[in-house]
Structure prediction request, 299 residues.
Amino acid sequence: MYIDGVFSGGGIKGIALIGAIEEIEKRGYKFKRVAGASAGAIIASLIAARYSSKEIDGLLDELDLKILLDERKTILPYSVAKWILLYFRLGLYKGNALEKWLEEILARKGLRTFADLPRQHLRFVASDITNGRLMILPDDLVKYGIDPHSFSIAKAVRMSCSLPYFFEPVTLKSKKESSIIVDGGVLSNFPMWLFDDDNVDRVRPVIGIKLSHNMEDLPKNKIKNAIQLFTALFETMKDAHDARYISRKHEKDIIFIPTAGVATTEFALTETKKQTLLKQGRDSANKFFESWRFNKKVI
Prediction:
């Protein structure tokens, strides 16, 4: 049976999504349309390319995650240069390595641009901080005078994954202006709303996979200093909109995966932690399917 899927952001913790997808596949479900933000955009693109969970796991085994941390070359010691790069380049790492890797593995399945897929079968969110608005990719590219069909899928994923201050933002150039684009998770880390009636016709069940506790069990922020205050502000900013939406509507259709103990940017991930994330995904999906019932009216 076909379903649609939405995958949340979460950096390296996105590995847990693979474990959940494995359990979804075991039950005979196949994804028709997919959407995501940040790490979820990576997974969504691979699913759209018809990679199975086993194949995605294999791709990660082949990849040294630290290769994605592509520093700019400088004659200065990195301990000094990183602050200069952060100030002028707006990020510690270029992000080119991530885009190149995605280009290569998507091309293996014949995917290069959005023209290679049916309309609305793959969508991401990104944040246009120049104009202060949320972007839906590829739909909103027309607002920038860009043909959505000819736009690189790997580039769109990179835009959705440009974690502020960590990866350099993407500069989207159009005939009128240049816009600075960062991680979609800044404004919507779990765009379940992309399958709302106002955004796309809902014709089959939608399952979301979110890298967090459910709303009732979500840990409270501890705020005792300025750094913790900033962290709490950022977490609230990126999750409050999505939390309000799913608490009203689709919580019963979401697999929540607690991923405590792994940092978003932990690229030096150990094999033990990787296997733990995969298991957390599988266990959370199993728990979800114990009670989930699809709505036959939308099939």
Notes: The chain is about 35% helix and 15% strand. The helical segments are 15-26, 39-48, 53-62, 78-89, 96-107, 153-160, 226-248, 271-289. The beta strands are 2-7, 30-37, 91-93, 122-128, 133-137, 165-167, 170-173, 178-183, 206-210, 254-256. The first strand starts at residue 2 and ends at 7.
